Amino acid sequence: MLRQLDVDLPTPLTVRGLVSALETTRGRRIQLAAMSVDGRVGPCGLWVATPGTDYVLFSRDAPPVLRVQTILHELMHIALRHTARAVASGGAGETAAAHGMLARSPATFDEQQEHDAELLATYLGARLDGGGEAVAFDELGGVTAAVMHRIAATLTD
């Protein structure tokens, strides 16, 4: 399955190095961001694709090992070029409107894309050298932060 990855894995393997390699391969920015969700009903991770940036969202309240696993899982969706679900535009003037997303939650664990992303995330997580960096939604800036807050709110209602 590693051969299916659309990226050369960095050495040493770090979250930051993997993000950088994916950005270079895809020609798109990837931003990691922590979100607040109720883990019992909401997703523990999301990949949100906007026209210019891929956002990898994870639960700020999860234990560190689960945060890294979730980040790797979402990055594997990107690396495997999985198909995100289409989302409706938020309205006129929103330059950061999402055009696709995938959510990591117990309800999706039996889907093949989720299985593949989780398998590779677990494999890479065992070989990881160090952690990653993330920001809160509010640090993403104006319209982007507002879009991310609405997505998280929709999924946790």
Helical stretch tally: 4
Biggest sheet descriptor: 5 strands, mixed
Total strand segments: 5
Using the CA coordinates, give the radius of gyration. Answer: 15 Å
Multimeric status of the protein: single chain
Distance between the termini: 36 Å
Helix-strand makeup class: alpha/beta
Mean pLDDT: 75
Written description of the protein model:
By secondary structure, this protein is α/β, with parallel strands linked by helices. Helix content is 36%, strand content 17%. It has helices at residues 15-26, 64-79, 112-125, 142-156, and strands at 29-35, 45-49, 53-59, 100-104, 135-136. Strands 4-2-3-1-5 form a five-stranded mixed β-sheet, covered by helices on one side. Helix 1 (15-26) runs parallel beside helix 2 and helix 2 crosses helix 3. The N and C termini lie far apart (36 Å).
What's the short story on this structure?
The chain has 157 residues and is of the alpha/beta class. The protein has helices spanning 15-26, 64-79, 112-125, 142-156; strands spanning 29-35, 45-49, 53-59, 100-104, 135-136. Helix content is 36%, strand content 17%.
Keywords:
157 residues, 4 helices
Blueprint of the fold:
Blueprint: H1 15-26, E1 29-35, E2 45-49, E3 53-59, H2 64-79, E4 100-104, H3 112-125, E5 135-136, H4 142-156
Parallel strand pairs: 1-3, 1-5
Antiparallel strand pairs: 2-3, 2-4
Helix pairs in contact: 1-2, 2-3
